[in-house]
Prior knowledge:
Blueprint: H1 3-17, E1 25-27, H2 28-35, H3 42-54, E2 58-61, E3 66-69
Antiparallel strand pairs: 1-3, 2-3
Amino acid sequence: MERSVEVRKAIFALLRSLGAKPGMTVSICAVGIFLIPSGFGHGELTEALLSLLRGEVMGSAPGTNSLMLLEAL
């Protein structure tokens, strides 16, 4: 499996475990706190989160260091 796909799947699994629903915000720092110990690097997580933003799965939450889930997982 391509590493970028693996990182995205890990992010989705994390969001599901947190009970994320559309409109819910998730701290970017929390993503790192949970996934960096699993072996994912800062750069990989950043690229995956930017990919989710471009794909309109997530949006930025203005004035925060968080992302907002835009569609159901």
